Amino acid sequence: MGKMAAAVGSVATLAAEPGEDAFRKLFRFYRQSRPGSADLGAVIDFSAAHTARGTGPDARKVIRSQLSVSSVSDHDAHRAGLQPVSKWQAYGLQGYPGFIFIPNPFLPGYQWHWVKQCLKLYSQKPNVCNLDKHMTKEETQDLWEQSKEFLRLKEVNKRRPRSLLEKLRWVTLGYHYNWDSKKYSADHYTPFPSDLAFLSEQVAAACGFQGFRAEAGILNYYRLDSTLGIHVDRSELDHSKPLLSFSFGQSAIFLLGGLKRDEAPTAMFMHSGDIMVMSGFSRLLNHAVPRVLPSSQGEGLPCCLETPLPAVLPRDSVVEPCSEEDWQVCTSYLKTARVNMTVRQVLAIDQDFPSEPTEEKKRDITTEGFCHLDDENSQVKRAKLNPDS
After folding, report:
1. Binding site as annotated, residues for Fe cation
2. Global confidence as pTM
3. Which of 324, 69, 114, 75 is nearest to 207 (CA)?
């Protein structure tokens, strides 16, 4: 209780800057907070929700959420690398209807597949990434192959130049989001990864959204000094479908606010394997990531990533084997990084994109749509990685 009192007091006594709203004030507080200090005592930890429910003002908001256990067979859950839905824990927050937090429901070892896909496969062309702004398609053709030797030598040579994977900040999948116009369009689409679509469909069905279609994805690649600015995801044309978020690697602090930025947000930890679902009222709420937290063991991986992916997988599994060599590269990357996948349904059934002026259709987002996570050490004029802020 002493830590909680200190944390709440330090937030309450933090002086607001001129014109600073309640959300921005909390964002700044957690951005400047010290890992392991009382500053983080008020942050909800859903991985220990059964013991945290009575420890502070925000923790008292935690409630149990009901899942649709019968909507996903144990076999289909296993195919996606998930435990049976009956074994998942799911939580919500009072005052945030439609928000569901599922602490790591992945089977032991199966996170390896999704980490590898984000780094090795999803970063490849024809998908779009932030590096396209300054490099040719040939130069960004296979970021994994160009980076793996750099990452293997990371422990040996601390002064080596950063690899291209370490410079990666975002990748878009399916309908590619245009950071300039803040829109999706029918004429800039590449096939959505089938394995990620299957995973998303199972999670959505378990949360009561049968028939969810994974049509667009934004992958965020965080370094330890990265932040994600305050924003609302409203560019999708169908807001009746949920926004799904999958986290891997180092932990982060997530802030969930209200419809307006003058409403103080609730802070929570996101650990490796955690899944968040924003639907209904919570689908259009302000949210942000002010801080990525380094491992308490120095440069180490979360415990849930230490278990290897099983050598024998279900015959119809969407999860593929991960070699020791590949995981060595992933490990080197994740020791100082976090990866987040967000998946959205853009269109309702039988809905089409509205017609756009001819000039809009001619724009090429691979050269004009530039935006990235805010890093402390970036010397480039920064633009926050958020579709709608």
Report:
1. 231, 233, 287
2. 0.87
3. 69
